[in-house]
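Key result, reporting period 2: structure in, sequence out.
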């Protein structure tokens, strides 16, 4: 079972061609640098329309079979920012720690971090996570903050994603520890295959 990841960029202007979407490229680039497990990506660029966000998330989970879906954009307080509302509407269960941790780490980068309403949820056996729309926020929230020596100061949320997908009976995900070290309890670590 190959790891399937959905990437959803929610932006009125990028979806209309007013500016070039940087969300999907930033997500793709970060995942390619961070994951050592093979994976396939399914990308969608859509406007800030709640019904369209909901149907896109449902399609990616129920039809495409994504184990993980990352959205970017539309998490703020502006009236057209409805990504968290759409995500909650299609959720079976909420995972509040993801939103809490993203706001914690983001506060180390911008004081307006608390303006993001981002949520993490489970639909069926898939994890859906909202990231803010600023392209730089993708790396900041997923990877966390490191000091000059590369030591983690505030962990990003991706450290917990592999174990979460494992608990949902999804593929075993391994990462490049230089980018983000995946944490799982000792009892959940699979030994490296012997040759
Ligand atoms: N897909 C994207 N590509 C490039 N830059 C983006 C993208 N989405 C957001 N941004 C940048 O991050 C800012 C905050 O993102 P937010 O999701 O709040 O967008 P917005 O201001 O509601 O506008 P829009 O939905 O038209 O992108 C935007 O104003 C824009 O500068
Ligand atoms: N890591 C990180 N988080 C961030 C930001 C950022 O630049 N980096 N921008 C903040 C700002 S200015 C806003 S308004 C909210 C919501 O952004 P969104 O509407 O683009 O999702 O996310 C916040 N969280």
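The corresponding designed sequence is given below.
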């Amino acid at each position: 079972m190959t790891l399937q990841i959905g990437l959803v960029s929610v932006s009125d202007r990028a979806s209309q061609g007013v500016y070039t979407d940087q969300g999907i490229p930033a997500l793709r680039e970060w995942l390619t640098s961070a994951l050592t497990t093979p994976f396939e990506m399914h990308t969608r660029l859509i406007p800030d329309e709640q019904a369209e966000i909901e149907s896109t998330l449902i399609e990616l989970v129920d039809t495409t079979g994504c184990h993980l879906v990352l959205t970017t954009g539309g998490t703020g307080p502006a009236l057209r920012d409805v990504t968290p509302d759409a995500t909650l509407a299609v959720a079976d269960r909420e995972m509040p720690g993801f939103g809490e941790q993203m706001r914690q780490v983001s506060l180390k980068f911008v004081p307006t971090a608390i303006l993001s309403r981002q949520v993490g949820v489970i639909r069926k056996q898939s994890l859906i996570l909202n990231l803010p729309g600023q392209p730089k926020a993708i790396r900041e929230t997923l990877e966390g903050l490191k000091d000059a020596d590369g030591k983690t100061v505030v962990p990003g949320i991706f450290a917990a994603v592999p174990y979460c997908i494992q608990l949902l009976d999804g593929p075993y995900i391994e990462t490049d520890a230089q980018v983000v070290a995946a944490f799982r309890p000792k009892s959940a670590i699979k030994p490296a295959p012997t040759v």
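Residues 4 and 66 are 5 Å apart (CA to CA). The two ends are 22 Å apart (CA to CA). This case is discussed further under Risks and Mitigation.
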